[in-house]
Amino acid sequence: MTTMLDVARRAGVSKATVSRVLAGHGYVSKTVRDKVMSAVEEMGYRPNLLARNLATNRSQSIGLMVPNTLYNGPFFSELLYQVATLTEQLGSQLVLADGKHTAEQERQAIHFLVDSRCDALILYPRSLSVEEIDELIPTISKPLLVLNRRLKKFPHYAVCADHEKDTLQAVSYLINQGHREIAFIKGLTGSHTGLSRLNGYLAALQLHGIAPQPELMLEGGWTNESGRQAAVELLQRKAPFSAIVASNDDMAIGAICALTTAGLKVPDDVSLLSFDDIPVAAFLTPALTTVRVPVDKMVSSAMMQLAKMLDGEKVEPLALMPGELIRRQSVGSGPYGDLVSAKDNKTSKGSLS
């Protein structure tokens, strides 16, 4: 097996020089660097990564912990793509650890990444609570960022979308289109995102003086099937509604299936709004009105925070990141559209006087 000493002899330099070239630390002239790299290529040398890690205390890797309940869906694909792309730009490898289904399994996955000597960690927890994460952070020696959570003790270690405000604004948009009986399909029980979106829905109703109706609130589980089942149950309850807000696009697609089976058209009979803006949302018929979650901005901000931490810089808490309402064809005017128009006209005349 070719060793670093063999490469040094072929290049006519010291072993220490070869080590500096491969580690990318310390000054080495271009001529010497070219000689070393030529010898590496000729001899097929592969550095001993473990030895290099022990020597430099850097593994050139970023760890990502995600529970496998996220794997089956387009949101995970977007998350993984963004993290992998930015990790590559940093010249590092991405190491994925499966958080599986429980808080303890998420802890085990995090410790696996630490034991694997990852330079920094990105965590997307589902089972670990905010309090448990806050307790865990001081025990981890590596820089880390938590996605999609708002931490109490360590807010500078978190980056999160403003799910509640995004939902409030999206539901307000429906109300301004003339909808008042608005059904809501919740996210998975215990989900931080799901709870935030439910709170945003309730806040929008309160803001516009609309009393929430329990019969218009359905349980969901983030999947197409859970959205279909929720819409079927909503129709069976026979409570009047003119719009549905689904907590993600997958459930909205399931709801469309149920509505179509029942002979209802979107948006002629029922308007539909959801969240995430998955790639297929723009290609449905009708195209889905949805809130685009800023996954790319969240991940890039996390990477910037981690880079500062690795350089020993102090970091400040990041503000919640707003989403963007993408208006397409699945939302139409509601039965109270005329009243909304009259109110708008009255407001406009008043503002001009």
Principal-axes shape call: elongated
**Helix content bin:** 40-55%
Strand content: 5-15%
Order of helices and strands: HHHHEHEHEHEEHEHEHEHEEHEH
User: In CATH, what is the class of the largest domain?
Assistant: Alpha Beta
CATH architecture of the largest domain, by name, is: 3-Layer(aba) Sandwich
Kindly report the CATH topology of the largest domain.
Rossmann fold
- The average pLDDT score comes to 86
Give the count of helical stretches.
13
Distance between the termini: 88 Å
| Strand neighbour order, sheet with most strands | 7-6-8-9-10-11
| Main structural class | alpha/beta
Cα gyration radius (Å): 26 Å
Low-confidence runs of at least 5 consecutive residues: 344-353
Report what the structure shows:
By secondary structure, this protein is of the alpha/beta class. It has three domains: 4-56, Orthogonal Bundle (434 Repressor (Amino-terminal Domain)), CATH 1.10.260; 61-159 and 296-319, 3-Layer(aba) Sandwich (Rossmann fold); 163-288 and 328-343, Rossmann fold (3-Layer(aba) Sandwich), CATH 3.40.50. The protein is 46% helix and 13% strand. It contains 13 helices and eleven strands. Strands 7-6-8-9-10-11 form a six-stranded mixed sheet, sandwiched between helices. Helix 11 (249-261) links the parallel strand 8 (243-246) and strand 9. The N and C termini lie far apart (88 Å).
Summarize the structure.
The protein has 353 residues and is an alpha/beta fold. The protein has 3 domains: 4-56, 434 Repressor (Amino-terminal Domain), CATH 1.10.260; 61-159 and 296-319, Rossmann fold; 163-288 and 328-343, Rossmann fold (3-Layer(aba) Sandwich).
